[in-house]
Amino acid sequence: MDAGATPGNGGHHERKRKRGRHAAACISCHRRKQKCDGARPCFNCTRRSVAMSCTYTDEAQRTAHSTSTPSASSTRELPNSPLPEQPRRLQTPPSVDQNTQSNPTPAGIAGASTRTSSAPSDPSDGQVGHLFRSRDASLYFGSFYFGPQAAAKIIEAPAPDLSSGIRHAAGSTHSFRDVGGPFSQIWDLLGLLPRKKSSVDRITECFLAELNWAIDAVHPASFKVKYDLFWERKFGFEDFASIDLRWLALLFIILAYGVLLDCPNPKNKELQRELQESSLCFYWAARRAIVIAPTFYGESLDLVRAGVLVTRYLIHLRGVPESWLTTSFAMRMAQAQGIHIDGERWRLPRKETETRRRLWSHIYVLDKTIALAVGRPFAIVDQQCLVKRATNIWLDDHADEEASTAPELPLSEPTLSVYNFLAHDLAVIVGKIQEGCFGLFTVSYDTVLSLDQDIMNWEARLPPYFRLQDPDTSKDELYPFLFWNRLHLHSMYHFTRVTLHRPYLLRQSITNRFKHSHDACIASACADLDMRLKYFGQSLSDRLKWTLGPHHLFNSALVLGIITVRNPHSRRSNAILEDLAAYCEMQRNDIWLNEFALAEVKIVELCIKKAKQFRNKKASSNAQPTPRAQPEETNCQEGIDATLQSTDIRDLPPFPSLQIDFDTDDHFQQLPNLTGANGYSWQAAWGDPSFSLLEATDLQQWEHVLDNIMGVCPS
User: What torsion do the CA atoms of 478, 482, 483, 484 make, to the nearest 10 degrees?
Assistant: First the structure.
């Protein structure tokens, strides 16, 4: 008897097998044992170009009819219908405070809808801003997305259907594993992550514990929420399509820092090189994700923060010219979300407003200082920005209701915001220096003195714990970030003063009218060199807490090296040469020395060599008998000062600087011709504000410049 027959029916009726679940897949997916999305046609049939043969069994149709969730096809048919539920996983869960997230968009939009819900609405209002919300971007000039130029078109015309995330590519005929498919880039990026989650956990925690609290990079609680959501996803198309590339870019650049922080003191050069290569791998993954993410999603604060961290990473590697480009990207991402307009004008919650102010200040400081360092135009125009500086209050860990009533703290109780708005204030002066003194037109020396007075006024307003001379360090134990913020502000101050007075450092005047620039430049350069000598005694984790800014934008050792070449016989030249020699030795013994820093060391060593050669040449010439006595010449400026004290001015010999009118536009044509071998004159870098310094890697050009500078003073 057949095993499937029963005695009662004579073996003609087979026993039906009970199904553990209802069939919902199409016939083709069921036969191939593939996961079907239930659409008509489904994704797999569309991908295989057999959409016409995508059919369902009666049981699958009844199952689909009995469910209440709309299918993917019905969602695509309604342009103005709500977005599918799956992409909403990219937004912040209700249990987490929105204003501390890397992406404040849901909070800003939700707050706007709450405020306007009681007012009568026009039937066409539903169309306005749909494009904006679907791209998951923050408010910008109202509820539209592309700014005032496109406002009328977006308001009058129906909003196009641009779905959030990458689910709009579900109808593609390419698999996400295919090279030409829309998911191939994401697939490659995920392959760059460490295979073990425990390794990522350790590296990420190193960044949050060692560096994040000092540079105000991300909000730890908000970052960890998205971090947990990322690792809780399951393999498959649905969870694969929900990956937020904007946050993934932030994760990669955090891993780039974390790898270095995980082993800040490598035992040998081979281990250091391995760590550097691993860090660079994550850095390039972050750059790649930053470029791809806006194509799939739009802008978010995660992208802005990733752009800021990428810029700081390049500064750490001494890639300052390239950091000028990445700063512009971060600025554009911020402007696309309206961060250049203060949150109070958007009527955003106080907590989110303070977060956006601090983030904008980070971008502002980087943009102004990097532009001044490389001699290129800055990207942020103050006349187009309406952002107030941050206040001395920290609201990231407060609820919205508590944050709205929290009082501002006095300066005696500092937070990270104090450093933030002080650096912003100095960056405003840096922007004025770039615009007024390093433009296409020459300015009077009075303008330089006026800007220097602005710097001194900024210094006078510093709180006691940030003073340049004898700062109050009693609060450092209670507020650990103060020590590193102090070093950062001091480095930024010295960078600003040295850059402002650099064009006048080597200029000569019979009335000594540029003495203020000489003294200011030398004083700031010596103070900064002292900080650099102490820098080598710190671990990498401590260095990164304060050097991801102006410290690596210039090198005071180069400035002092030029001074010794110009005045090798001055009273302070011996002391400067000793400090420069110690600096070069410490640099060469530093295990984290890279090729850019090594190039700067070679230039400083070249300055030391040239200065000693000039001193030896002078000593040998003085030892030889001469037919008649000649007045002793130490160096150009000191020789002039000594002559002024002993000789009547009418008896002075002709001197080139006497013929120069420094208030005219063509005074550089009147300087002596000291052009180098390749047509480069030393005045271009040290006397013309419209020129920036030579690249440190151009050693041959530097040698020509130093030879020409040495030729100004008689030997």
Answer: 130
**210 part of a folded domain:** no
Residue 447 CB-half CA count within 13 A? 17
The pair of three-digit structure tokens given for residue 198, joined into one six-digit string: 């425990």
Query: Lowest mean pLDDT: which of 98-107, 416-425, 616-625, 651-660?
Result: 651-660
Find residue 341's DSSP bridge partners.
386
Rounded distance, CA 459 to CA 456, Å?
A: 5
Q: Is 578 helix (H, G, I), strand (E, B) or coil?
A: helix
In degrees, rounded to 5, the angle at the alpha carbon of residue 292 between the alpha carbons of residues 288 and 297 is 140
Nearest to 332 by CA among 374, 368, 360: 360
Strand partners, 681: 675
- Per DSSP, 119 falls in state S
Mean pLDDT of 188-206: 92
Q: What is the pLDDT of residue 173?
A: 43
Domain range spanning residue 582?
A: 552-619+700-710
Tell me the C-alpha to C-alpha distance, in Å, between residue 681 and each of 41, 332, 565, 694, 707.
71, 37, 16, 11, 11
pLDDT at 425: 97
Q: How far apart are CA 70 and CA 389, in angstroms?
A: 47
What CATH number does residue 52 fall under?
Answer: 4.10.240
Residue 394 in domain: no
Residue-wise pLDDT tens digits, 676-708? 334 434 444 444 554 455 566 566 677 777 766
**Contact at 8 Å (CB) between 280 and 335?**
no
Q: What is the pLDDT of residues 569-607, one digit of tens each?
A: 888 888 899 999 999 999 999 999 988 888 889 889 988
Rounded to two decimals, the pTM is 0.70
Domain end position, chosen among 40, 62, 84? 62
Domain boundary among 62, 78, 108: 62
**Eight-state DSSP code of residue 384:** G
Calculate the CA 236 to chain-centre distance: 34
Structure tokens at 518: 């000489």
For residues 639 and 680, give the distance between their C-alpha atoms in angstroms, rounded to a whole number: 28
Terminus-to-terminus CA distance in the chain, angstroms? 120
| In the chain, % of residues over pLDDT 70 | 66
Q: Count up the domains in the chain and report the number.
A: 2
Report whether 338 contacts 392 (CB < 8 A).
no
Contact in structure between 106 and 92 (CB atoms under 8 Å):
yes
Buried b / exposed e along 419-441 (16+ C-beta atoms within 10 A): bbbbbbbbbebbbbbbbbbbeee
Q: Helix, strand, or coil here: 172?
A: coil
Q: What does residue 457 show for φ and ψ, rounded to 5 degrees?
A: -65, -40
Is 229 in contact with 101 (CB distance < 8 Å)? no
Residues 6 or more apart whose CB falls under 8 angstroms from that of 701 comprise 676, 678, 680, 694
What pLDDT band is residue 296 in, cutting at 50, 70 and 90? confident
- Following DSSP, what letter does each residue of 8-44 receive, concatenated? GGTT-SPPPPPPSS---S-HHHHHHT------SS-HH
| Residue 380 reports pLDDT greater than 80 | yes
Q: Which pLDDT does position 21 carry in this prediction?
A: 62
Q: Is residue 572 part of a domain?
A: yes
Q: What is the C-alpha to C-alpha distance for residues 95 and 471, in angstroms, rounded to an integer?
A: 43
Buried b (16+ CB within 10 A) or exposed e, 63-99: bbeeeeeebbeebbeeeeeebbeebebbbbeeeebbb
Who wins on pLDDT, 552 or 649?
A: 552
d(Cα 519, Cα 187) in Å, to the nearest integer? Answer: 58
Indicate whether 590 belongs to any domain.
Answer: yes
